[in-house]
Amino acid sequence: MKKLLKNSLKKLGIYDPYLKFKFKYLTPRGIGHWEPLIPEKEFYSSVKLAIEKLLENETDDSLGSYLEFGVSRGTSMSSVFHVLKELKLDQVQLIGFDSFEGMPEGSEKEGWATGQYHSTITATTKYLIDRKVDMARVHLVKGWFSDTLFEKAKKDLNITKASIIMVDCDIYSASKTALNFCFPLIKDHAILIFDDWGWTEDAGIVGQKEAFDEILQQYPYFSTTPLLNYLPQSRVFLISRKIK
Ligand SMILES: C[S@@+](CC[C@H](N)C(=O)[O-])C[C@H]1O[C@@H](n2cnc3c(N)ncnc32)[C@H](O)[C@@H]1O
Question: Which InterPro entries does the protein's record reference (predicted)?
Fold first, then answer.
């Protein structure tokens, strides 16, 4: 049915305007069924394994905050909350950054549509509450990363350390801004989760993989251990400060 609609709209030459309308007016307001953007079951298992690995290595009692760059409606945020709950890590605050306007203008050249994945803080909050997430531990920060990811945000939200980080903002520029913001918060060990790893490489488009390679060059004292992925194009790493 979806394919039929897509093909018909394409034939009429109105598929792109339809997408713009959908991302701007329909999905943000929760009209229609919301399709999760990650495979929840696999994501849950992969994050749980990764955090268990982190706990084997981490000697500090405090894991700091969970940072998520790209929240959209909140499926990954909700899954991470429930993994933390199962592991009794109830002290971890969950901080999510998103434009809450979907993908930025110009994302087309990297394979995404402007406005895609648009949610609103209200719709996301409702979704998280419906999924029994304790909102007292969640902070959602609305805005483009270029306007929000500064020292001020760390101070305002009391972010002094990050050990679990999800970078799900798809495109190179946003991923690089997110990594620049969070790397100084990594102490000895951290889990880093990427949802869109290297699948634009064949088309000659730089993406999350290149953003991560570049940040590791800036912080050469970290080593990376790949962990179980939840999708072929996802990557989960344990990163650790090399012993001097
Ligand atoms: C694929 S979605 C995130 C999916 C989410 N993790 C989930 O589980 O449903 C990508 C998100 O990144 C956000 N995003 C991308 N680039 C951004 C930027 N430069 N500033 C703020 N948000 C951005 C978009 O608004 C979008 O909601």
Answer: SAM-dependent_MTases_sf, TylF_MeTrfase
pLDDT tens profile 194-207: 999 877 777 778 88
| β-bridge pairing 235-241 and 162-167 | unpaired
Query: What does the pLDDT look like over 112-146, one tens digit per residue?
Result: 889 999 999 999 999 999 999 999 999 999 999 99
Ligand 1 surroundings by CB, under 6 angstroms: 37-38, 70-73, 75-76, 98-99, 102-104, 117, 144-145, 168-171, 174
**38-241 topology per CATH:** Rossmann fold (3.40.50)
Rounded distance between C-alpha atoms, residue 130 and residue 165, angstroms: 23
Q: Where are the domains positioned within the chain?
A: 1-33, 38-241
169 Cα to the center of ligand 1, angstroms = 4
Ligand 1 centroid distance, CA of 244 (Å): 37
Q: How many angstroms is it from 103 CA to the middle of ligand 1? A: 6
